[in-house]
Amino acid sequence: MAKNKTTETISSVTDFVNAVKDPIKRTDSLQVIELMQSVSGFEPKMWGPSIIGFGSYHYVYDSGREGDMPIVAFSPRTTGLVFYLSCNPEEREKFLNELGKHKSERGCVTIKKLEDIKIPVLKKMIQATLKNRKAVHSKTK
Questions:
Q1: For the chain, what is the domain count?
Q2: Side-chain half-sphere CA neighbours of 74 within 13 A
Q3: CB-hemisphere CA count at 13 Å for 26?
Q4: Is 3 part of a structural domain of the chain?
Q5: Does residue 63 sit within a domain?
Q6: What is the number of H-type helices and E-type strands within the chain?
Q7: Domain of 23?
Q8: Measured between alpha carbons, how far is residue 47 from residues 8, 55, 82, 117 in Å?
Q9: Predicted model pTM
Q10: Structure confidence by residue, pLDDT tens digits, 46-58
Q11: Is 73 among the domain residues?
């Protein structure tokens, strides 16, 4: 079975964020870290080389493949800030309609900068993801 590419690492979140070249993305990343940490109660950790995650949950697919993933996460990418959030589909659509300027596909929501969105809606999406993960995955930590 293939090994998961996205795993928690011991790399420094601070070093990673300080290396972000775009000053707006760097500043926005620091704000997102503060928001996700305060809402989730979890410390930020690097997952793979470029994802900042908070908390973790264990999943097992019907195929037998299993692993751990962050409960909520984001990554400052070239295209913008990519959020990995998983609330239920009805809530997701409602939140996305209220969020502001964004692009979304599957479980990802991408924004160019924080000033383009409503932070209270992002906060609600983070809270809904935490609730959803805990309801679906009993080994959430």
A1: 1
A2: 31
A3: 10
A4: no
A5: yes
A6: 4, 8
A7: 13-136
A8: 4, 11, 14, 25
A9: 0.90
A10: 999 999 999 998 8
A11: yes
CA-nearest of 81, 58, 76 to 8 is 58
Domain assignment present for 7: no
* CATH number, residue 96: 3.90.1150.200
Contact 34, 46 (CB under 8 A): no
Collapsing DSSP to helix, strand or coil, 2 comes out as: coil
Q: Let me know if 73 is exposed, middle or buried by CB neighbors in 10 A (0-12, 13-18, 19+).
A: buried
CA 67 from centroid of its chain's CA atoms: 17
53 near 76, Cβ under 8 Å? no
pLDDT digits (tens, 9 = 90+) for 17-35: 999 999 999 999 999 999 9
Q: Per-residue pLDDT tens for 61-86?
A: 788 778 888 999 999 999 899 999 98
How far is 80 from 83, CA to CA, in rounded Å?
10
